[in-house]
Structure formats: C-alpha cells, structure tokens
Amino acid sequence: MTKLRHSALLRLLVALFSFALIASACVSTEDEEADTTAGADTATDDSIADDSTADDTAAEDDSTDDAADEPVELTASWRGVTEDTIYVGASMLDFALLQELGFSPSGWGDQAGIWDALIDDLNDRGGINGRMVDIISEFYSPLDAADAERVCAVLHQDNETFVNLGGFVGPAGSADPCVPGTNNTIMVGGEIGSAEELAQANVAWFHTGPTVEFQTINLFNLLVQTGKADGAKVFTIGGAAAADEERFVIEQLEARDIEVVGSALIEAPDGDTIAQDNEMAVAFERFNASGANTLMVFGTPSAYIRGAGAAGLTGEIAIWTNDSGGLGNLGATIVDKSIADGTLVSTGPTDEEIWNDQAFQDQCVAPVQERMPESDFRNPLEYAPEEDNWFNALRRYCHVLAIFETIATAAGPDLTPETFEAAAYGPAGDDFQIPGIGPASLSPDKRGAQDGVRLSVYDSTSGDGGIVAFTELLDAFE
C-alpha cells in the first residue's frame, strides 16, 4: 500500500513567514557646492563645505544600511514555490516490499520520519531565504519501473512540487527522466545512466555521487594509476537495456589501451532470476573461451557476480563494476556474498568515514536523533544483516537535502528552475561542502557533486557485507 505523506499536516504549529515590501523615503545624494564668491571668508566656506559633505555621506550610509535591512518581498515565483513555502517531493525505496519478496533481510528504519526530521531542522534554522519547506513523500518499488512512474505522477502531477529529492534507483531508475523531463521538475538524486537519459531533462538534475559515466571514467583512470589494469584481458557484461552504456565502457577501456576480448548483453531483467541464470551460463562459457581474466560489469552487478560464482570464476578472476550502489546492496539473490569479495569499484569516502565526520554528526545525525529519540543511528559496520540500517537512509537523504539547500539558498528569493540552475553553475556550485562527503562541485559537465574518489573493494566480512577502501582518496585525473 502506498502512502502520501504531507508534512504540512505535521507542522501546523510552525509560524508562516510573510514579508511585506517596506517603502523607504528617498534621500538626496546631490553634492552641495561650496560658496566660492570673491571676497568671501575662505576658511568659513571650506568648513561649511566639509560639514555638508559629511552630512551627505552620512545620509548615503544611512540609506545603504536601510536598504540592506529592508526585507525582500517573496512571491509565488514558480510551481511549488509560494510566498512562504517551497514544496518538495521525496521518493523512497519500499523496503517492506523488498523484505516481503525476499530481496532484502532488513530495511532502512523509519525513512519518512527521517525526512520529516531533516525538514523540520531546516525550517527551525529559518528555511530557505525565509520560506519554509514542506515535504510530500511516497514509497516506490525499486524492482518496478511502472511503480516508480506512478510515484513520479503522485509527487509531481497530483501535487505541485518544485523539486524531487531522492529520485529512483535500481531497475526503477528508468523512471528518473519522468521528473526533470515529463514533469519539468528539478531533481537532486536518482541515477544519470547515460547522456541520452540526461538529454531528456528539461531542468536541472544533480546527485551526490558521480554519474554512471564518471563512475566508469574514475574507475578506469584509478585502475591505470594503481597498476590494476596491467595485463587485463576484459570481458564486459550487463543488461541489454544498457546497450549504450556497453559501448561507452568498451570505448573507455580501449582509450586506455586495456584489451577487450569479449562482451555479453543479458536480456532477462532483474527479478527474473531463472532466466538470467540460464543466459549467464552461456555468457560465461563465452568468457572462458575468450581467454579473459577480468570481468567488467556495467549496471547493477548482483546478477552478473552471481553468474560468475555459478561458473566457478569468483576468486579466480578480477571483477570490476561501475555501480558502487549496487555493489554495496547485493540483495538476497546472492546467498553467499563472499563470491563478490575482491570486486573493485570507484567510490568516495567509506560509510565509516562518513559516520565519523563531525559535520555529518552535527548536521545529519544530531538533528534527527533530537526529533526521533527512537531512531537507531550508529556506525554502519555495527548493524547485523537482520537489523534496519538507519544510517543508509540518513546518509542518502541528508546529502541530497544539503545539495538542494546550498543551491536553492544561493538562487535567492526569486526561486525558479532558471535561477536554481544558474546558482549551481555559479560560485555556489564551484566549491561547497556536503556533510560526510567533504568538497563538492557542480558544472554542466559534472552533475555528480562528490569530488574525492578512490578504489574500493567488496568485503563480505565487513558488517553485513560492504565496500571498504582499497586506496586513499585520489585525484582520478592526475
């Protein structure tokens, strides 16, 4: 059952902020001319002139101070932006459904409650340029693109919202263009899967980590820098729906003189495990025949790591993937997650580094704990597989909200898609901080905010199975 959450009903006690345009009296700034008539007392005239100039300068200073203190009139500048409120939509993974279907042993805690607490904290700090933020949240199935399309319609057609926070992940990620494309709604989150997908966006679309293209570029650059690509004979594999991504991956490998010896596209979608496994049995026969020693997985990696395990190749070959989110959440279709051990991916700070960052504790953890005493936030490595991982939800939601708050604040009182995008590509987007992530930047060519990257490796013994640092944070473009 889906649920439409509208936090306005939860915050009736929050005072609405309204701003009136205060008219100020005009102050003359014309200079007085000193009387220089022949025979006049020069010293007296100079004194008068000095006094007049001082008075006029004081008047100018008072006028400037008055203008600076004068409140700006807030108007209904765009769809979802009124004189006193910015309406935002949040899309959330339906972990209750994933648990019911056996795809996840646990959830992410009270996701809607986390969102409400973060928004309440933002409003308690004054909102965005004097406007309060009101959130509407909805759950979607990450396995069902049609359900994600439904949520897109609920959040951005049934309700007037200015931005989507969160987007969609997994197979449901194909619904992402519904937000900035079909509904012309700014999005902070989701997964920009390709240049073609981004081209469907009519308004700004950003997210925390690198885009899929930059995850691929960062990965290959780091593999070359660290010598991990030396002697690699690569076989690429992924879903047929990502054929454009396959071409990009092969082009990037060849551009770095990394040998490509074969490739395979799997038609069966995630969720149809039997059909996938049948196709992959054939694909890995081709892998063995090609002489490959490295498997490059593009897109969600769980099915293809499972296929490599079934073929007896895990632990014998190198595995690379450009999907850090998918590697960190392999799901229940892989019972023995040790088959993914050693898989390399490009990432930013580890979960533990994010947790230990003081800015994350101050700006993300503390505000939610204060408003949700029942919450269970702790070092992510301490969660058992069957325990709800509250950290995952908080990290994801706090990060996208921080990006939105930074850019929307810089956009000023006249908040529109145009002013938001201009602010993102201006000084505010050149260098800002995300709690737990650190330095970040945005540009027309860089839609993922995170700046620092490293090679990381999957380790099934880390917590309930996760990604751990393999190198220090590096510059992938050195």
What does the model show?
α6 runs parallel beside α7, α8 (273-290) crosses α9 and α13 crosses α14. Strands 1-3-2-4-5-6 form a 6-stranded mixed sheet, sandwiched between helices. Strands 8-7-9-10 form a 4-stranded parallel sheet, with helices on both faces. Strands 11-14-15 form a 3-stranded antiparallel sheet. The chain is of the alpha/beta class. It is built from 15 helices and 15 strands. The protein is globular and about 75 Å long.
Search tags:
478 residues; alpha/beta; Rossmann fold; 2 domains; 6-stranded mixed sheet; 4-stranded parallel sheet; globular; disordered N terminus
SSE topology sketch:
Layout: E1 5-6, H1 42-69, E2 85-93, H2 95-100, H3 111-124, E3 132-140, H4 145-158, E4 163-166, E5 186-189, H5 195-199, E6 205-206, H6 212-225, E7 233-239, H7 243-255, E8 259-266, H8 273-290, E9 294-297, H9 302-310, E10 318-321, H10 324-328, E11 344-347, H11 351-356, H12 358-371, H13 390-411, H14 417-424, H15 427-430, E12 432-434, E13 438-440, E14 454-459, E15 466-469
Parallel strand pairs: 2-3, 2-4, 4-5, 5-6, 7-8, 7-9, 9-10
Antiparallel strand pairs: 1-3, 11-14, 12-13, 14-15
Helix pairs in contact: 3-12, 3-13, 6-7, 8-9, 13-14
